[in-house]
């Protein structure tokens, strides 16, 4: 692979490109000027620059205030989230403790029902009758 790159090899492609797009793109002087050209013809005086700088300072200070308020808001949100997490953790522990106590109570009730001479069905009927009496009194 022996390459020879001469100076004109890079410019030789431009002829092919203009042929690709047609003759109207041959003239490179008609293209739009670059926004970075130095000869733009803009007259920027010191007063205009000073006014733009003061507007820039006002906008920067306003953005700084907004950033400070967003920072304080995010810090307060973080504190609230930490407090909520602690509350949810304690609530979860309370539910776990309640579940354990209910299981123990149910187990003790089942042991008591087995040791007594009255069957579980009889206990259920007694509780149902008591509930119906309370419900009837409450309605009246």
TrEMBL record:
Q: Which SUPFAM superfamilies match?
A: SNARE fusion complex
Its membrane topology is listed as: Single-pass type IV membrane protein
Q: InterPro entries of this UniProt entry?
A: BET1_SNARE, T_SNARE_dom
GO CC terms in record: Golgi membrane
Question: T-SNARE coiled-coil homology domain: from which residue to which, for each copy?
Answer: 50-112
Predominantly, its location class is membrane
Q: Where in the cell is it found?
A: Endomembrane system; Golgi apparatus membrane
**What are the UniProt keywords, alphabetically?**
Golgi apparatus, Membrane, Protein transport, Transmembrane, Transmembrane helix, Transport
Q: Which residues cross the membrane?
A: 118-139
Query: What are the BP-aspect GO terms?
Result: protein transport
Q: Which PANTHER family match?
A: GOLGI SNARE BET1-RELATED (PTHR12791)
Put simply, this protein is called LAMI_0E05512g1_1
Q: What is the lineage of its organism?
A: Eukaryota, Fungi, Dikarya, Ascomycota, Saccharomycotina
């Amino acid at each position: 692979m022996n390459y020879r790159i001469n100076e004109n090899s890079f410019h030789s492609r431009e002829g092919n490109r203009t042929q690709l797009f047609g003759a109207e793109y041959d003239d490179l002087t008609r293209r739009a000027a670059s926004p970075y050209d130095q000869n733009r013809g803009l007259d920027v005086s010191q007063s205009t620059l000073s006014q733009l700088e003061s507007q820039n300072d006002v906008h920067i200070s306003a953005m700084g205030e907004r950033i400070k308020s967003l920072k304080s808001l995010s810090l307060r949100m973080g504190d609230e989230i930490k407090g909520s997490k602690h509350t949810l953790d304690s609530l979860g522990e309370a539910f776990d403790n309640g579940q354990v106590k209910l299981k123990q109570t149910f187990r003790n009730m089942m042991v008591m029902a087995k040791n007594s001479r009255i069957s579980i069905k009889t206990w259920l009927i007694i509780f149902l009758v008591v509930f119906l009496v309370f419900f009837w009194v409450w309605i009246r």
